[in-house]
Structure formats: C-alpha cells, structure tokens
Amino acid sequence: MRIGACLHVTTETANLVATLQAGGASVALCASNPLSTQDDVAASLVRDYGAATFAVKGEDQKTYYQHITAVLDSRPRVTMDDGADLVSTVHSSRRELAQEVLAGTEETTTGVIRLRSMARAGVLLYPIVAVNNAQTKHFFDNRYGTGQSTLDGVIRATNLLLAGSTVVVAGYGWCGRGVAMRARGMGGNVVVTEIEPTKALEAVMDGFRVLPMSRPPRWGTSSSPSRATSTSSAPSTSSG
Q: Residues of 92-131 as b/e, b for ≥16 C-beta within 10 angstroms?
C-alpha cells in the first residue's frame, strides 16, 4: 500500500512511519509544519528506514509545496494529513490522482472543518477519517500531551514557579483537564471556570474550585482560551 503523509516530522511520526513500513506499506512523508521538523529525524528516516522523506526545518512556502508535490508523485492510495494540505492539493492541482486514492485521514480540527465543508458542498472526492475525533486522540494528545506541553511552554517562557501560584484554567474540556491536572501536580492552586454545567460539576468532583470567569483574574494567575480553540475548551496560560 502506498501511503502519502503530510505530518510533523518528529520522532513520534518516525515511529508511525517505521510501523507502517514494518506492515508492508511504502511511505512518502513531508512536513506539515516546517518549524517542528527535526532534521536528524528526517535524515534517519531516509538513511536507516529507506522512507522517502521531504522535510527541512524552516523551509519556505515554495519548498513546502514542492515537498507536497513530491509526496503526491508517489501516487498514494492513502493520504495522511495534518492540516488537509495533501487532500486540498489533490482536489486543486492534482485531481488526476483522486481516482486512485482509497481514503485519507485528517488530524486537526481546522483540517476537519475544511473537509466537512467540502463534503457538504459535494466536492470531496474520497472519504476522510477524522482522527481528531478519536477517543484516544482526546485522551492522550489533548489531556496528557497538551496538558504537559502547555505548562512546559509557559514555564520555559516566563520562568514562573507554579508551586504556590493560583492558576486559573478557562474551560474544563480535554485540554483544560490536562492543564489543571498538571498545574495541581506541580503545586499550583487551581481554579477552573466553565460555563457547561456537567463539565463544571466534573471539575468539582475532580477536586477543583469552580468560579465565574469574572472573579478569578482579580486575584489569580490567569488562563484564558485561545480564540482558535475556545469552543473545545483548550486553554493557553499566562501569568497575570
């Protein structure tokens, strides 16, 4: 099976590629985000695993689309996207490939929104699995992955000591739960704000104090949802 993937070229993706190849697949990979590419990983995939890999950290837009074209030149039967750029390119400039593609996957909320819009308009040429909706994605990526990486980013950027700080988490969705859990584990006094009653109750049952958003920022280290992800209750934290 020929698989074309546009994903973060990191050690995690390298393990995915190695697993697919061990199962007999032929994989061509390019980077979905030039800033996350690990050059040593890309080199190892080519040298040690023989996987066609087109990625370099910091590549410009022209190179980015050249790499997408290189992956599509392998004429994949399955596409794996993180942002829907492979499938979008198939539908725009490489439509001759669509009849060969059996199906694809999409990892991001943004990509899924784009693809659902195409499906509603009747222009989506092959089925896509919305990986972002998988229970394992919510559990591992959002709750544990984002829960850790969000606080890691805040601490690295601010040198903030969470122990003894009051951390306000806006929204008790999957990401919010992960941030709240880790902030408490690092000694923070965590307050949750949540407008959905059952999620607010869950936060209380998990041992967190729940208050309206209008109250905590007056005396806490505040966290507010990013505009792009506020509907999924995914917080970005900052000292205040």
A: eebeebeeebeebbbbbbebbebbeebeeeeebebebebb
Rounded CA gap, 204 and 195, in Å? 13
d(CA 11, CA 26): 18
What is the average pLDDT across 77-85? 96
H/E stretch holding 79 reads strand 78-81
List of residues 6+ apart from 179 with CB closer than 8 A: 146, 147, 150, 151, 167, 169, 223, 235, 237
**Percentage of residues in the chain having pLDDT higher than 90:** 79
Which pTM was predicted? 0.74
Bridge partners (DSSP) of residue 80 are: 5, 105
Which three-class secondary structure state does DSSP give residue 229?
Answer: coil
Angle at 73 between CA 70 and CA 76, to 5 degrees: 110
Per the listing, tokens 């307050």 go with 191
Average pLDDT over residues 49-58: 96
Q: What is the mean pLDDT of residues 196-222?
A: 83
Coil, strand, or helix at residue 94?
coil
Burial of 173 (0-12, 13-18, 19+ CB in 10 A): buried
Beta bridge partners of 3: 27, 78
CB 89 within 8 A of CB 114: no
pLDDT score recorded for residue 127:
96
